[in-house]
Amino acid sequence: MTVLSHYSALALARRALFGTSWARAWRKPEPRKTYDVVIVGGGGHGLATAYYLASRHGISNVAVLERGYLGSGNVGRNTTLVRSNYQMPGNTEFFEHSLQLWEGLSHELNFNVMLSQRGQLVLAHGPVQLDVLARKGNTMRLNGIGCELFDRSDVQRFLPFLDYSTHCRFPIYGGLFQPRAGTVRHDAVAWGYARAADRLGVDIIENCEVSGFLRDGDAVSGVETNRGRIQAGRTLISVAGHSSHVARLAGLRLPIESHLLQAFVTEPVKPFLDCVVSFGAELFYISQSDKGGMVFGGHIDGFNSYTQRGQFPKASTVAECAVALIPGMSRLRLLRHWAGIQDMTPDGSPFMGRTPIKNLYLNGGWCYQGFKATPAAGWCMAHTLAHGEEHPLIRHLAIDRFERGNGSDEYGLGLWTYKQ
User: What is residue 304's DSSP assignment?
Assistant: First the structure.
């Protein structure tokens, strides 16, 4: 065993130094002139859609166009949380389907996405919040999703290092715990889907920026890129924080704003937090990475931006929340922080499905929910592209729902809870 381990280490070092024998995880193809489906955006959702188109619907003549490199967008700029503790009809079922797909994804892709189902505890800071969490827990149980309602003493036994003092900033009344929630390695998700889709014949084309859409009468017939024109039977926009301005290239105006969402990580420390903890007073969330760093974040920055740089006021606010909840955090050094670009819709839920323009489809406006939705979003959009009509799980997320007075305000429901 020692000899084999020593040999493996030497072989790994030799490959790292001299770059020999490394097989590409996916091809680097030149774009073809025509595809059945073109997916604009090579993030988690775009790659997942391509994979399920090929694996579930037999459609492999697909191109995924990414203007940078895979993982350069929001799929590589998040805090890796996955859960299904949603309350609104439609959202509950959708995110539970996504969590079930997460649970089998490493086997599905033959690639370890490092799912860690350590659980998530949502804290209540008042009796009204605890009551709302109880109702959310009942909704989850009615949908077959396991959870447990904690009172203050339960939380104190579970997480004794939180601040339970009389004059603490965030008094703890209890919480709702979902044992199957947890974290996933975000870059492994991008690599796993990319490799699996490539092996099924999907073309993943990096450094390919879309600058316009081709039209055939009233229908979209393809895209104009910095690498030439590409014809497509159907085209999907799946570009995370850039949905509004990419859609505008096709003449589609979306009720979306783009904001920064920052995240932070500290120096590594010995393991002490074995679940995800969150609360609504500042939309704060925290977990401990496999390396030992404390990963945490909060609300979006309060102004529109397409940058991926963090801003100090939000860093200060989120650090204050971390120290108020876990006083020991005050001793840790902050190593780095980053920002993703969030598509914020009026009701906090995404747009998924057909658009008013023939052959043009949209998957965008994910607000805070994009990463955890990756498998289900890909699954449902693959079905929608293959059949030309929305999957049943996303019919409530149609782009015309505001015209029909039928918003899906999961975010607003939570905000009402937090302000009581």
Answer: B
One domain, residues 395 and 265 = no
Strand 174-178 with 148-151, pairing: antiparallel
Q: Which residues pair with 263 in a beta bridge?
A: 297, 338
| Cα–Cα distance list, 378 to 50, 124, 361, 414 (Å) | 7, 33, 13, 26
Q: Mean pLDDT throughout 371-396?
A: 97
| Token pair recorded at residue 397 | 């997320």
Is the model's pLDDT at 34 over the cut of 80?
A: yes
> What pLDDT score does 282 carry?
80
- CA atoms of 169 and 163, how far apart (whole Å): 9
Question: pTM, whole model, 2 decimals?
Answer: 0.92
- Per-residue pLDDT band for 399 (boundaries 50, 70, 90) equals very high
- Regarding whether 355 and 216 lie in a shared domain, the answer is yes
Half-sphere exposure of 405 (CA within 13 A, CB side): 0
CATH at residue 202: 3.50.50.60
Q: Does residue 415 fall inside a structural domain?
A: no
Q: What is the mean pLDDT of the chain?
A: 92
Are 176 and 263 found together in one domain? yes
284-288 and 294-297 as β-strands: parallel, antiparallel, unpaired? antiparallel
Question: What is the chain's alpha carbon radius of gyration, rounded to the nearest angstrom?
Answer: 22
272 and 177 both lie in a single domain: yes
Residues 195, 340, single domain; the answer is no
- The DSSP annotation for 150-170 comes to EEHHHHHHH-TTS---TT-SS
- Residue span of the structural domain in which 326 resides: 117-182+258-345
Q: How many residues would you count in the chain?
A: 420
